[in-house]
Design a protein that fits this description.
- It is a single chain.
- The protein is of the alpha/beta class and 442 residues long.
- The chain is built from 16 helices and 13 strands.
- An eleven-stranded mixed sheet has the order 1-3-2-6-8-7-12-13-11-9-10, with helices on both faces. Strands 4-5 form a two-stranded antiparallel sheet.
- Helix 5 packs across helix 8, helix 8 packs antiparallel against helix 16 and helix 11 crosses helix 12.
- The longest helix has 21 residues.
Length: 442
């Protein structure tokens, strides 16, 4: 059974379908792993044992009767603590929301339940999802799988840490500026950022609604494809026959290659070499509009985030970690005309990006320019915290600003990912490209 905890969600589903794995035994294996893991309390905010067991029993009965609802029926996964779950506290990593217990599931959780997936519980996250580091002294800070003293990346920190430590077959997170992709990269996982608006955010605690997206953190691209289908209640993308032969990739050089640490730089170059060896053509590109878009970030993200949470924050500011509170308050001084003008500018820049990238199958860049920082140093050095947080989210933010589908893949170097960006609403194509790239990267 211990082997089950390292298998992909798809392989677990196939095992259930073939009768080799019992869904109840599988869920019990995960619940036992959670109960005995020394870092479990830093990863899970709540373990929904009764729900998990009931859902597993129902899945096992369907399997025995030949009535499985899909390829992941009976597979146990975790949910970031900003997805409403009926009867279970949903606090979005913040003491501001203590005691918040929704009476119904988020739309995506309801879809997953209808598809037969088992809900193991809720995972810790950065406070109100407004940090890429995963440091949260107000609730808990999940550990990175490659360095127990380092942060796991955020804001879907517990989602990534849980999967990487074998405490869930997959995790569902959210991504407003990189919050699926950074923790996935730092914990050697696949992380899919969907296009804003692709998946319903009904029943999801917001950060900046125009940028908020939902996506899975998984062991494989196939798992990501299956989970995307579950979350949006559609048939999964057909990944068969995916190949890099004849593909053209743009290697973005503007902004994203600056200040790279040694390990991510080497891992990225080695990954590009392997992609070329598998038949892809990689063309370096500069896009000046990326810099212009980056300059809009504070106006767009902070203003919407503060506008959403201002009254809650200012009613009890001492309940927040100072650097997170300060980041929200960075949106205080943005006027309505500035905000509207910034969105008009960004819409124009998105059009320019789409035109420049139309001839490429994907755009490549390092997922994160840095390695997971030490949690204690982040707590002790405020300037270091701010600097590392901004650097951590810089590359992934390109995908959010340009409104893209994006995915990070492990490179084979611990905590170093390579990101592939596709077109807006281009998840199906991007997943096929990523499937081929995953095979080339080994």
């Amino acid at each position: 059974m211990r082997d089950w905890l390292r298998m992909s969600a798809a392989d677990l589903g196939r095992g259930i379908g073939a009768g080799r794995i019992d869904a109840v035994d599988l869920t019990e294996a995960y619940l036992e792993a959670i109960a005995t893991h020394p870092a479990a309390a830093r990863i899970y905010t709540a373990v929904t044992q009764d729900r998990a067991r009931a859902e597993a029993q129902a899945a096992a009965s369907r399997a025995n009767e030949g009535q499985r609802r899909g390829p992941l029926d009976g597979v146990p996964i975790s949910w970031k603590d900003l997805f409403d779950s009926a009867g279970t506290a949903t606090g979005a990593g913040s003491r501001l929301l203590e005691g918040r217990v929704p009476d119904r599931d988020a739309k995506v959780l309801a879809n997953a339940t209808a598809a037969g997936l088992v809900c193991l519980g809720k995972t810790h996250m950065s406070e109100l999802a407004f940090s890429g580091l995963g440091l949260n002294p107000m609730t808990a800070t999940p550990p990175c799988v490659n360095d127990a003293e380092a942060v796991a990346g955020g804001s879907s920190s517990g989602a990534a840490s849980g999967v990487a430590h074998g405490l869930a077959a997959a995790g569902i997170g959210s991504d407003t500026g990189g919050s699926v992709r950074v923790p996935a990269a730092w914990n050697d996982l696949v992380g899919l950022k969907t296009t804003a608006g692709r998946l319903s955010c009904e029943g999801t605690v917001p950060l900046a609604a125009r940028f908020d997206t939902i996506g899975p953190l998984t062991r494989t691209v196939e798992d990501a494809a299956f989970l995307l289908a579950v979350l949006e209640d559609r048939a999964p993308v057909d990944l068969r026959g995916a190949s890099l032969k004849g593909m053209r990739f743009a290697a973005l050089e503007t902004t994203v290659m600056e200040d790279l640490r040694d390990a991510p730089a080497r891992a990225y170059q080695e990954a590009c070499t392997r992609l070329e060896a598998a038949g892809a053509q990689i063309v370096p590109v500069t896009v000046p509009e990326v810099e212009e878009a980056m300059d809009l970030s504070a106006t767009l993200f902070s203003a919407e985030a503060y506008g959403t949470w201002q009254h809650v924050i200012e009613a009890a500011p001492d309940k927040m970690f100072g650097p997170i509170r300060d980041r929200f308050r960075g949106g205080q001084g943005v006027s309505a005309p500035e905000y509207v003008a910034a969105w008009q500018t960004l819409d124009r820049l998105r059009g320019v990006w789409a035109g420049r990238m139309a001839g490429f199958d994907a755009v490549l860049m390092p997922t994160a320019p840095n390695m997971p920082p030490n949690a204690a140093r982040l707590m002790e050095d405020g300037d270091y915290y701010v600097r590392e947080n901004l650097l951590t989210l810089r590359n992934t933010r390109v995908g959010n600003l340009m409104g893209l589908a994006a995915i990070t893949l492990p490179t084979g170097t611990h905590s170093c990912g390579i990101m592939l960006c596709g077109a807006s609403m281009g998840e199906a194509r991007l997943l096929r490209v990523a499937q081929a790239a995953e095979a080339a990267l080994g």
